[in-house]
Every structure is written in C-alpha cells, then in structure tokens.
Design goal:
It contains 16 helices and 21 strands. It is α/β, with parallel strands linked by helices. The strands form 6 sheets. Strands 10-11-9-8-7-6-5-2-14 form a 9-stranded mixed sheet, sandwiched between helices. Strands 15-16-17 form a 3-stranded antiparallel sheet, with helices on one face. A 3-stranded antiparallel sheet has the order 18-20-19. Strand 19 and strand 20 form a beta hairpin. The chain is globular.
Length: 450
C-alpha cells in the first residue's frame, strides 16, 4: 500500500462490517414481543443457521473483545447450559415448523468448557427441534489449552465438522503481555486429537497489532502454524478499546505497534501464508486451494456474517445464549448480555431479546453493496440497485466519499462497477464505509482500518 494512503485512511475507526447496520444502531424498540412475531411469521421455505454463545473461560485474555465470564467452577456452566436448552425450546415452539438448518456455530468464550455429555445432549436437542441437514457444517471455537481428549471424542460423536483454534501468537513475550501462555505443543496436541476424532476442518485464528509484536514474530508464528497444516486461517487486527473492555487496560499501550507497524505485520503474515500455499480470501481469511471458501470466492458466492467470511447461504441466523445476535428476514435481534438477567427472562418463559433493529429497504440495499465490496473487492452497483428497484445514479452521486476514494487511487469506477485497486485492498473497510449511512451517528469507537 502507498504510504500516503496508509497515512490518510489507515487511522480511520471503522466497523468490520460483519453486519449492516452494525450493532451500535440496535435499540430497545425491538424486544421479545417483536422477535417472537418475527419468528412466528418466518416463511416456511427459509433455511437457517444456528449460533450458540457459551460465555465462559478459565482465564481472561487481555486482548479479548468477546462477552465472556471467568470461572474456575463448573456449576455456573452447568446452570447456563440448562438455560440455553430452555431457550432453544422456547424459540422452536414459536416456529410453524422445524427450520431447515445448514450451519451451526458454537462461539464464546470457550464452548468446549462444558462437559462432553452436555455438549452431546445440546446437539441432540438441536437435531430434535430443528431439521438439521445431513451435510450441515457444525463448527466450534476452541481454546487448545483446555481441550481434553474426552471433549475431542465427543465433538466427533456430535458431528462437528470444523474446529476453530485460538492461536493468536506463539511469541512468549507477546503471550505474557496478553495473559495467554500457549505452547506450540499444546496446539499440536489439540489439532492431532481433533483429527483423530474425525474433525478435519481446522481453522487457526491469528492476531496482529498486539503488544511487543514484531514482523519477525508474526512470520515465526505463521511458520509454526503452517507446520500443522490447518485448512484455514483467520487473521485479525487487535482492536484496543479499553473504554468498552476494561480488562484491556492491563495492556501496556506504549507497547502497541503504530499504524505503519500494524500494516507491516499484516502484510508479512499474508505473504508468509501465501508462500505456504494458502489463498487470500477477502480482507482477513486464508484457505488451502481446494477449500470450499476458495471456491465460494471464485464463483462470487462468498458471504460475510458475525463469524467473518463464510460459505453459509442461509436466509436467517438464530442466536442463542447471553449477548447472542440473530438476523431474521425482518431484522436483527440481540439477547440480554448480563448472564443473570438473561437467565431470569428464559426461566420466566420469555424470549431474551432486549434490543435489535428492523431493516428498511435502504438498509437491505446498502447491506448488499457492502457485503459484495467486502467479499469481492468490487461491486456492480447498477445490478444491485436494480435488484432493489433503486437508481444506481442516485446512490453514486449521493456518496461524496466515493469521489475522494477515486481521486486518491483507492477505487476505480467503470460505468456502474466499483473496484478496489489491488494496491489498496487493505482499505476495503474504508471503501465499504462509503455506503454506510449511519457511520459516526452513534459516537462509538471502532477498530482501526489498518
């Protein structure tokens, strides 16, 4: 990337655009009553994905931006899983028929913190209350430090097809600075155990922009990681927002790399992964050439949701658990974040939705434009606008940032087709933000564009 572009756009604070509109636009205008009506009125032919949030970990990683709670006891986890089961029943009871499900994702926190028997029972309940496709992808996020052989075996028995392992960095200096000590050997044992259990879809998560991180340590982490040959990598820039995540105040801000160093780290990781045979997918994912995500990108059917880039083509996403977000045909719905209040609502027989957003026609148009920019680095504005019965000329004229991006050499416009220039692809979030009608309205701080 040109130095002038990085200086001009790299410090922008922008959403990751895993949804549109983004979460700061959610309000309590959408509660359990609206969500219940949305569920009841879902068309019979929709397909669905299920997301289950398990907000518990054994220790706090100081970089973490997730909703999670630290516990050394199993009792809170057992109680939570019981409530989660009850929520699944409540939601399923609102549906006119069992939804056809193509994807299931367990996120956290650390979902594998529950007992193996609890996981098996949870998956069995989902198969009972939903029409889980025989070829459905069932994915789970894993902390290799706490994964047991019994849980790996249970994951295989449950039909899990993809496991996402948190690695972040193998540099011991960085690990101490973020309170996450994890050896290569622990990660290798977890990977081998999952494969022995029949789970061959393996994803590693890496982070750049961490305290004391260097280009050299990033490359070394990639070297060690690729030796285990996971199918995919997700590579994210650390988002330092201590005003929202108070545990991030434990990180020494003076040790954080600046924008130029972050960009150098990200590009070093990209080059190392591509040299190892991985294909770059969108902004921050990488996959082996025969992976389904590569094929989706090639054929222009890659999508983006709360888990990042995905091959999931489902019409709706149902979120279960404290803080979980769902997306129905009518809009977004988010559950109560606080564990106690979430549990109280479910125990009373209520849905846990406390806020959300009802989509407008303009939102749907802009969401499609943003998704294609984020997935393909280009978008046929005319084609999408006509699909939404909107004038492409009106959209293109109404966005002054597009002219600035064009003048600065970030994008090019050929008729109604917008493309991000190859040397500016790292600024794709800046390009996507040009279509965001709400950016800046909430006053919320997002992560750096670079």
């Amino acid at each position: 990337m040109r130095d002038d572009l990085r200086a001009q756009y790299g410090e922008e604070r922008l959403p990751r655009y895993t949804s549109y509109p983004t979460a700061p636009q959610f309000s309590d205008a959408i509660g359990q009553e609206a969500y219940g009506q949305w569920l009841t009125s879902l068309p019979e032919d929709v397909t669905a994905s299920l997301y289950l949030h398990v907000p518990f970990c054994r220790s706090m990683c100081w970089y973490c931006g997730c909703h999670t709670t630290i516990t050394q006891r199993d009792a809170p986890i057992i109680d939570y899983v019981a409530v989660l089961r009850r929520e699944i029943e409540l939601v399923a009871d609102r549906l006119s028929r069992p939804l056809a499900v193509r994807h299931v994702h367990f996120g956290g926190g650390t979902p594998t913190i529950m007992e193996p028997s609890e996981l098996l029972a949870l998956v069995a309940l989902m198969r009972q209350r939903f029409a889980l496709d025989s070829s459905a992808e069932v994915a789970i996020e894993i902390d290799p430090r706490t994964l047991t052989r019994a849980m790996s075996k249970a994951l295989g028995e449950a039909g899990v097809t993809r496991a996402s392992l948190g690695v972040q960095s193998f540099d011991p200096v960085v690990q101490r600075a973020i309170n996450r000590i994890q050896s290569f050997e622990q990660t290798a044992r977890a990977t081998d155990g999952l494969r022995e259990a029949g789970i061959h879809g393996i994803n590693f998560d890496l982070i750049y922009g961490l305290p004391h991180q260097t280009v050299e340590s990033c490359i070394e982490t990639v070297r060690q990681s690729t030796a285990l040959r996971p199918d995919r990598f997700s590579v994210f820039g650390y988002a330092h927002v201590p005003s929202f995540k108070k545990h991030q105040r434990k990180i020494d801000e003076a040790a954080l790399p600046d924008g130029e160093a972050r960009y150098a780290q990200a590009e070093a990781i990209a080059e190392a992964l591509m040299s190892a045979g991985y294909r770059r997918i969108g902004l921050d994912h990488y996959a082996l050439p025969d992976d389904s995500m590569v094929q989706a990108q090639v054929h222009g059917v890659l999508h983006r949701n709360f888990q990042g880039y995905t091959t999931d083509t489902s019409d709706v996403l149902i979120g279960f658990g404290a803080s979980a977000i769902g997306r129905l045909t009518q809009g977004y719905a988010q559950n109560e974040v606080v564990l106690g209040r979430y549990a109280e609502r479910i125990v009373r027989g209520e849905l846990a939705t406390v806020k959300g957003y009802a989509l407008t026609a303009d939102d749907r148009l802009r969401a499609d434009l943003i998704e294609r920019v984020m997935c393909d680095f280009q978008v046929d504005v005319g084609q999408i606008c006509r699909r939404h019965e909107t004038s492409p000329a009106a959209i293109l004229r109404a966005i002054p940032k597009l002219r600035a991006l064009q003048d600065d050499g970030v994008i090019r416009l050929e008729g109604e087709v917008l493309s991000v220039n190859d040397n500016a692809r790292f600024l794709v979030r800046s390009v996507a933000s040009a279509f965001d009608a709400y950016l800046g309205a909430s006053g919320r701080t997002h992560s750096r564009a670079v």
